[in-house]
């Protein structure tokens, strides 16, 4: 999805409970990671796409800069792609663990989430209806398979809402509109 499609989807959903829940979740996401935002998926589904969007938004909202935690990083991977599960053992107060799991979370994932919670990390979950994962999370957003949006669309909504709810993002957008008015929109 491009930015225009995300904006349109947000407008279409603006009066729904899902969008209100997404905004609430996004506020918690932004405020929870004072030191580090750890992003973890399942062994079968690493949240690469969401990591990229959060990384893009972190230019304007530094709290959204994710550390992608991988189940089995290959030897010799670049530093930003070589953070393994051992990083979760060091999770602490001031950090947030954002777990993305479209299916039922496997037991090893739930155990690591529980450990991170016990050491003081704030747990956030974007899930497909997993009661155990939701039960471990301080804040959860559940995306039902038969709901208004797909799991992929929900990830776009979360990253956009987290950035757009930021006062810094609002200033950036106002400046962009002013520059467009003065110089005309940038053509691609």
Question: Can you walk through the features of this model?
Answer:
This protein has helices at residues 3-12, 17-32, 48-57, 86-89, 107-118, 131-136, 151-164, 167-183, and strands spanning 36-40, 66-69, 95-101, 122-127, 139-142. By secondary structure, the chain is α/β, with parallel strands linked by helices. A five-stranded parallel β-sheet has the order 2-1-3-4-5, with helices on both faces. α5 links the parallel β3 (95-101) and β4. It is globular and about 50 Å long. 35% of the residues are buried. The mean pLDDT is 88.
Rg over alpha carbons: 17 Å
Helix fraction, binned, reads: 40-55%
| Strand portion | 5-15%
* Element pattern in H and E: HHEHEHEHEHEHH
List low-confidence stretches: none
Number of helices: 8
Mean pLDDT: 88
Give the CA-CA distance, first to last residue. 17 Å
Q: Main beta sheet, described?
A: 5 strands, parallel
Give the overall silhouette: globular
Features:
single chain; 188 residues; alpha/beta; five-stranded parallel beta sheet; 5 strands; globular
Q: Secondary-structure blueprint of this entry?
A:
Elements lengths: L2 H10 L4 H16 L3 E5 L7 H10 L8 E4 L16 H4 L5 E7 L5 H12 L3 E6 L3 H6 L2 E4 L8 H14 L2 H17 L5
Parallel strand pairs: 1-2, 1-3, 3-4, 4-5
Compact description:
The protein has eight helices and five strands; from the N terminus they run ααβαβαβαβαβαα. It has helices spanning 3-12, 17-32, 48-57, 86-89, 107-118, 131-136, 151-164, 167-183; strands spanning 36-40, 66-69, 95-101, 122-127, 139-142.
């Amino acid at each position: 999805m491009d930015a225009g499609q995300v904006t349109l989807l947000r407008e279409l959903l603006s009066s729904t409970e899902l969008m209100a829940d997404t905004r609430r979740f996004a506020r918690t996401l932004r405020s929870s990671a004072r030191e580090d935002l750890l992003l973890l998926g399942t062994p079968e589904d690493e949240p690469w796409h969401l990591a990229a969007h959060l990384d893009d938004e972190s230019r304007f909202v530094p709290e959204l800069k994710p550390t992608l935690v991988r189940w089995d990083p290959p030897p010799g991977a670049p530093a930003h792609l070589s953070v393994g599960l051992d990083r979760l053992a060091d999770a602490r107060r001031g950090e947030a663990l954002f777990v993305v799991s479209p299916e039922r979370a496997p037991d090893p994932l739930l155990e690591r989430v529980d450990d991170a919670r016990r050491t003081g990390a704030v747990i956030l979950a974007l899930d497909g209806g997993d009661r155990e994962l939701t039960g471990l999370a301080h804040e959860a957003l559940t995306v039902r398979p038969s709901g208004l949006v797909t799991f992929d669309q929900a990830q776009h909504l979360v990253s956009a809402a987290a950035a757009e709810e930021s006062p810094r993002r609002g200033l950036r957008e106002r400046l962009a509109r002013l520059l467009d008015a003065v110089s005309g929109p940038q053509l691609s």
